[in-house]
Structures are given as structure tokens and as C-alpha cells.
Amino acid sequence: MTQIFTLTLSPSLDSATTTPKIYPEGKLRCTAPIFEPGGGGINVARAVVYLGGQANAIFPIGGPTGEYLKELLDREGIHTETLKTQDWTRQNMHVHVNNSGEQYRFVMPGARLSDDEFDLLVLQVCNIPSGSILVISGSLPPGTAIEKLTHLVRQAQAMGLQCIIDSSGDALKASLDLGGLALVKPNQNELSTLIGRALEHPDDVRSAAMELVKRGAAERVVVSLGPQGALAVDRDNCVQIVPPPVKKMSTVGAGDSMVGAMTLKLANGADLLDIVRFGVAAGSAATLNLGTRLCSLEDTQRLYDYICKSLNHPVRG
């Protein structure tokens, strides 16, 4: 299997709790918090490991929150390559309200990276064996220029790495402008912004995704469609996978679980259909859990088997 590495520039220590109800000014009594690792690339690596694969997570850590983040990953058996930084790793909070079922996500700014710290992360990326998959996922730290990200991606590609970018906004656009990405996963709104026109019909989404492939921006474009699953294209195929009906408890972690599952299948040489089937299954599996928990192998395999037996996804050449 091809080796998998992930890079998280804005990691976090995530806490999840519940409260009976939420209202202004008063004291909101909460349950004891559950702490979990957070950050796009970190969660992608965790999902890969949960699903039976191996992954190496590269990320900066700072202060006690950073040390605890690494400790939690060590407990899970995730292989990490860290860089100590001056700024403390951020801490986010997820609150589930019992009487309404609403979820509140409080996301703090990422820790800043100095120029020297960023350059040291680039060096770590340059040490990844050629031919490996590198997943760069999550937001950029405050003050980090887009040009630094594109320089990093260019360096990674020059080293022979297959780059998967799971980001948004200017960071995603700049990465696609470089071209040659192995896979990207925009949602429909993000794809519309990238293409510069409204996508009102299913065939509009397919055409827009195919444009990115034909111009060499990415080999595979997987468009997240929420409850409708995902539509994916490469040069020869277009597939749409509709997820099975499940009782959703939380959508937190669904996207990272999906990327982790697709990365694992890609590392094993799977075709586009199987990559997206497994990705949708893992994303749906993550929604079965409260808080920030990711997919489990048992739930993912059960949903994957269901999807494979289903005939509700068109496949077009």
C-alpha cells in the first residue's frame, strides 16, 4: 500500500460537552468535557487508522494544549511528526443542547506560525518518501500567506508526492491553479465559486467538476452534496453515490472521515467508484456519533456493504 501522510497547519484540541438548554447570561451547566484531537489533517490520519490503515500526521504543537493533543494521538496509536512552536495550540469547543438537539461549534483562531516554523514544516514534508500520498487539510494559520501554501504544494509535487487538498476559499483555488492534484473534495457552493457560475442542476455540477479535471487542476474531483451524497469525476468516469438513510446525531467529523476513507482506498489502488463508495460510507458513519467522534470501522463497513448492494447511483463514462 502507498504510504499516507497528512499535514495540519492549524491543529486544535477539541472539547465536546452537553447542556440541557442554552440561553444568554445565565450559567449553563455542562457535562464533563470529552477531549479529542482536532484539525483537518489530524482527523484524516485518525480516520485512516480507524479504518484499518496506517498514516503519519505532521503538525505543529505549542504549549500545554499542544502537548495534550500529541498525548491523545499517542494513545490512539497515531504516528506523529510534530514541530514545537511558540504559540499555543488552539482549543475549540462543541456543545450539544439536549432540549433542542442543536449543536454549537466554537472555533478559535489557529496558532500563528513564524516564517522559520513554517519553513521547518516544509522540510518535514520534503523528507516524505517519493510516491507517497500527502493530504493537506484544514485552514491556514492567521498571518500565513497563500503563497506559502502554494510553495509547499509545489515542493511536495516536485518530490513526487500525490497531493490531496481539502481546504476552501483562496487556499483551495490557489492549489487548483497549480494543477496536478490527486484529489479535491469541494462542496457544491465551493465548486460554483471556483468555476465562477451558478450550478443549479445536477448536470451543471458534473460539467463543472469535469472542467477542473480536463484543465489538469486535479485528477479526481469529488463534490460533496450533503444528504445527496457525492458526485465524483475523473477523466473517464462520473459516479454519484447516495448515502443510506441513517439517524444523524452530528455532522462534525463527517468530511474528514470521508477524506480519510477515500485516501485509504486510493492508497490501495481502488477505482473511482470504490473510492467514493467507501468515502460516503465513512462520512455517514461519522454522523451516527455525538460530539466530535469520527467514523468507526464497523459502522463504515456496514454502510459500505449497503451502498455496494444498492442500485441507486448512476455510473457514466
Automatic annotation (TrEMBL):
Record-annotated Carbohydrate kinase PfkB domain positions: 18-296
Key words, A-Z: ATP-binding, Kinase, Nucleotide-binding, Transferase
Entry annotated with the keyword Transcription regulation: no
CDD domains linked: FruK_PfkB_like (cd01164)
GO-annotated molecular function: 6-phosphofructokinase activity; ATP binding
SUPFAM superfamilies cross-referenced by the UniProt entry: Ribokinase-like (SSF53613)
Short name of one Pfam family: PfkB
The name this protein goes by in its record: Phosphofructokinase
